[in-house]
Every structure is written in C-alpha cells, then in structure tokens.
Specification:
- The structure is a single chain.
- The chain has 457 residues and is an alpha+beta fold.
- Helix content is 29%, strand content 22%.
- The strands form four sheets. The chain has a seven-stranded mixed β-sheet.
- It holds the Pfam family Transferase.
C-alpha cells in the first residue's frame, strides 16, 4: 500500500502553552556554541509504540487524545522555545530561537487499519518507509523553521504510537529525553485523575529545564557570519527509504562476556587504565560486526565517533538540566583491517576508552565548526567508513510512561548510513543494551546477525 494511504489523518491542530504569565510574552534565545553544528542537520525523528493492555483505561478518543493534548500544553509552559521557531530574519546577523504568544506545536491525530502494529514496532528488518507514515513532517523555510511537531497514531485493538519530528538545533539526546519525560510525567498525573491546575503544573527539579546561557556556551564557533543564511534542515545525505532498520540486544550477561574478552586481550597495565563501561563494549562490538558485515565493500579506513555529554565537564559546569545541545564528539581513525583481525574488539574498545578518559582528565571540550566537518568530509569521504552512534542507555527511554504503561518499542530513524544508536532494553532488567542499525540490503543484515550472535553465544 502506498505510504500516504497507510494512515488516515483525523485532525491537525496546534497545541499552545497553557495560559500562564510566562507564555503571554515574547521569548527569544540565542544559539549556543554547541547548537551551531546542528543548524542544518536532518530532523531528529523518534517513535514510541505503546501496546493496548487490559490493565489500563484504553479509550483512545475519549481518554488518550485529550490527556496527551492537555498535558502537552501544560508541559510547553516550561519549554517555551519548543512551541516556537528557529528564525533568521533579514535584519539579524545570526539566527536565534523565538517564541511569540499563540505559537504552538503542530499536533496530528491519525489512525490506521492497514499497518501491522507488530511489524512496525518490531526489531526485525523493516524498511525505513514502513515507519515514516507515523512521523509528522515540518514545513520550513530558509528564514524560519518550527522546532517540533508531534503525531499520535491509533492502531485499533493494538495500541498507539507517538511520533516526533524535531529540529536538532536545540535537541541533543539528553534534552529530547528531558522534554519527553516531563510530558510523560504530567500526562501520567492526568491519566491517574489527579486534580491539576488548568494553567500550570510544576515539574520536579530533575525534569525542569534550564535555558540559561552562560558566557562559556555562547561563543559563535564560526567566528564569522555563515554565507548561507538558512535554518532549513538539509536532507541531501539521508539514507534512502528502502534501507532496512533492525535492532539487536545485548543482555547484562553478554556485556560481562565482552568486558572479560577485552581484558583478556590487553596487557595488565592497560587493563588498569581502561574505562570499560557498558557503552564502550557495546559500541565496540557493534562496530566490529558492522565493519565485518560489509565484506569487500568496506573502505580501507574506519573513522568512528560518539557524542559525550559535557554539561558536567565544562568549566564552569552547566546545569544537568541545561536544555540545548551540549556535546563533544571525540573521534578516532584506524585501518579497517585492524578491526577484522584477531583482537579487534580490544583495539576499538581501548580507543573509545582512552578518548573518554582523556576528556575527563583534561576537561578540554572541542566545539566542532562547520568548517571542521567540511574539511574532514572532504579528506576522508572516499577512503573511510564514517561511523557514529547516537543516544545512550542512561536515558532509559523504555521507562517513558504517559499513563498507559511503558512502550514496547522505541525507534529512532537514523540520519546516516553508518549510524547506530544505543538505548536501554524494554525488559527493565537494567544493564542491557538495544542497538539499532541501518543496512542497505537483507544480505548484509543476515551477515551482521550471524556475526553478532556468534560472538556472544
């Protein structure tokens, strides 16, 4: 069935922040140093799938839709920039975030009787376009782009999904998680029929965003005004929609096996200095399997990077609930053959570990500029596999309860062909990791799946 016919649009509306003193006046916010690199990157796209259960009141039209609308309005009062736009007016030298009274988030309600809930919310290989109908679109221009759009899709007798399209210029993984958890917190209060103020609902400190921009995060890393005056997201290098998405699981037992293997492959002196976290071994293991699965099509070099939250590393540090991008992206370059050789797991794990240890030791945070990225891409695009990882198991996305239980699938539509994500697992046991990847064809997925299973069993 054609993508456009998979869902029926029931309603498209605008959810504004609840009428509170803070939402009655215009609010602007400058881009911080870490926001600039994400000014033109593709939209962040996320999906949360919630199965229908017998233990919760499950009236989609009478309960779920109004609860999510009302709670979103109350949540946006704390997150005003998300109801606005990133703008670049002709009379402004630089872009900035702008919220004006009556701004709001586009909220789409849809349903589908044709899509298979268990298929689109599974971990088996599915094409990207299988999930796209459940994610909203954002209409943008060079001078103004909305920050956020949300789509709620009902799968009758099976469950519902919440789809997000968000401009990366103000969202890193922690910020996105903070917003979603805050929305879920208020929604759950309403779903549990607790009496709430119709105009304002306070959030606990750990869910209250900080939009303060201290001097150490406000430097413009370009040191000049970019020639391309645009805030529109670039979609030129996105994977085609027939790419396959699939997820794999590492249990706590698997993680311990991988850590033990790394320690067996390194010298005692090196082992004492290693930072062998769950993230380190999971990323290293996924990279090895992924590079091997490419076979003869793999380029001669491997460049791998990852995002490190530096809120607590900055001098002085910023709030743990600082809202915006606050990431450093350590990267390493090595020959791909080293990954395929004996001891490849420990080689990658050591490099990732050393980068993390060095960042914590020196507290030196490098802010990448667009010029840095262009220079690197130009130099290595034809000779290196450019791999990177998004999100973190620490975000505990599978514990996002809006009042009807936890999701049975969290899906991230990846922005690059060699990109993967690491999140927690839905079993709630703690310590496990779910890994999401993209594959150009089923053959490569089959090779990866075989290598992945063989290495941990």
């Amino acid at each position: 069935m054609e993508e456009g016919k998979l869902v029926r649009i029931v309603e498209v509306c605008k959810i504004c922040p609840s009428k509170h003193s803070s939402s009655e006046s215009q609010f602007s916010l400058p881009l911080a140093s870490f926001d600039w690199i994400s000014l033109r990157v593709p939209l962040l796209q996320r999906l949360l799938f919630y199965p229908q259960t017998q233990t919760h009141d499950y009236s989609f039209t009478d309960s779920i839709v109004p609860t999510l609308k009302r709670s979103l309005s109350l949540t946006l009062t704390h997150f005003l920039p998300l109801a606005g736009n990133v703008v670049w007016p002709e009379d402004s030298a630089l872009p900035f975030f702008l919220y004006s009274p009556n701004d709001g988030v586009s909220f789409t309600v849809a349903d589908t009787t044709h899509a298979d809930f268990h298929h689109v919310s599974g971990g088996h290989p599915r094409q990207i376009h299988d999930c796209l109908p459940f994610i909203p679109t954002i209409q943008s221009s060079d001078s103004s782009t909305p920050i956020l759009a949300i789509q709620l899709t009902h799968f009758p007798n099976h469950g519902f999904s919440i789809g997000f399209a968000a401009h990366h210029v103000i969202f890193d993984g922690r910020s996105f998680t903070l917003f979603v958890k805050a929305w879920a917190y208020i929604s759950k209060l309403i779903a549990n029929q607790l009496d709430l103020d119709l105009e304002f609902c306070p959030l606990p400190p750990e869910l209250t965003p900080s939009f303060e921009r201290p001097p150490n995060v406000l430097r413009n890393p370009f040191d000049y005004v970019p020639k391309n005056r645009s805030v529109k997201c670039n979609t030129e290098y996105l994977p085609t929609s027939n790419y396959l998405m699939a997820t794999f699981q590492l249990t706590p037992t698997h993680i311990q096996k991988l850590k033990k293997r790394v320690l067996e492959e390194v010298e005692k002196e090196e082992a004492e200095e290693l930072h062998l976290s769950t993230f380190v071994v999971a990323y290293a293991y996924a990279l090895i399997c992924f590079i091997k699965s490419k076979g003869g099509e793999c380029k001669e070099l491997l460049n791998f990077e990852f995002a490190v939250d530096v809120r607590g590393v900055l001098d002085p540090p910023v709030s743990s609930t600082y809202f915006g991008n606050c990431l450093s992206n350590p990267a390493a370059l090595m020959e791909a053959r080293e990954v395929r050789e004996e001891g490849g797991l420990s080689k990658i794990a050591k490099k990732i570990s050393h980068m993390i240890v060095e960042l914590r030791r020196t507290r030196t945070v490098k802010v990448s500029t667009m010029a840095d990225c262009i220079q690197f891409q130009t130099k290595y695009f034809s000779t290196a596999e450019l791999c990177w990882v998004a999100s973190s198991p620490k975000f505990k996305l599978y514990q996002t309860n809006f009042g009807w239980g936890n999701p049975n699938k969290v899906e991230m539509v990846l922005l690059g062909k060699n990109m993967m994500y690491l999140i927690d697992t839905k079993d709630g046991s703690g310590g496990g990791v779910e890994i999401g990847l993209l594959f150009p064809n089923r053959h490569q997925w089959e090779i990866f799946a075989s290598l992945f299973a063989e290495g941990i069993n």
